[in-house]
Amino acid sequence: MSALGNVISALSEGAKFIPYRNHILTKLMKDSLGGTAKTLMFVNCSPSVYNESETKNSLDYATRVKKIKNMVGKNIASLEDGKYTAILNQYDGFMEKLKAMLRASDKSLEFSNLEVEMNKPTHPVEGEENDK
Known about the structure:
The protein is mainly α. About 55% of the residues lie in helices and about 0% in strands.
């Protein structure tokens, strides 16, 4: 919880460095805490005098969380991402044309053997015997 408190303190103070990597919990919550998501926090308050200090600490913690200002919005792919996707699609089409040319050529048997070799699992599956 101290790592989460450190992240929340840094976010509420507007620090340049946010220590997300200090704990696995803060790594997982990185997008929710400092990203573009809207985050809610629920605080459990007890009316008992016995729990007064815990209630005060919880409310102080919630006050710090309330100071965090996220820019809530949609995550939209950039134009640059679209360009890369188009290029990858173009290369995929090019690869399919090359495969078709290889299948039609006199090297089709070698290509078929190569495809089988490339599609073999790299690790033996449990329950199967080795061919050795």
